[in-house]
Amino acid sequence: LEFRRVLFRSPDGRSLATAAADGVVRVWDTDRGVETEHLRGHAGAVWSLDWAPERGGIATGGADGRLRLWGAGGRANVATPGGRVLAAAYAPDGSTLATGADDAEIRLWDTATFTERGRLGPAPGRVHGVAWSPDGRRVAAASDEGGLTVWDAATRTRLVAVQDHVRRVYAVAFSPDGDRMATASEDRTVRLRDARSGSAIGPALAHPRRVFCV
After folding, report:
1. Over the stretch 27-38, which tens digit does the pLDDT of each residue have?
2. Which pairing describes strands 76-79 and 189-194: parallel, antiparallel, or unpaired?
3. What is the side-by-side order of every strand in the sheet holding 15-20?
4. pTM of the full predicted structure?
5. How many whole angstroms from its chain centre is CA 128?
């Protein structure tokens, strides 16, 4: 079984969620090491997964072009963004969910009503990863064409546009203080960056193969 996304920990640290190629999301008890929930609904691989900041739900996106927001009892709301849902991330306060897909758009969803609030983009290509700054003001996207873009979430203006990876960028993350970022790429490198300018800090960190997460 191929796991697409793994080790997404619940806010209380007691559970773990994994997304897999069989279309099933599994929730695990980290103390006992046993599966506690088996969430079915995607028709194909689950490409993206994130846990709400409070233990209220799990967001997943899949190869079937569906975005699902799982709550108590395994129920889900469904939307159909632009192609495969390759990335999903909750804002720090849980009020908004950002998703990335094949159409190079970053969609912002109201998690209370599950309606689309707006879009950021387009990115240079398919969006493989999204991340919020710790203060919830910026959204970063990792995309094809070696691209990293950062937007102001409120004004929807683009703050950073960098294309210095040789191949597609799979993942992006902010440091806990929001001053730095890291990007992981198909070009077998990870780059550390200034979060305001997007400029690389130091040399690229080399890996023997593609880097999918950071």
Report:
1. 999 899 899 988
2. unpaired
3. 3-9, 15-20, 24-29, 34-40
4. 0.91
5. 7
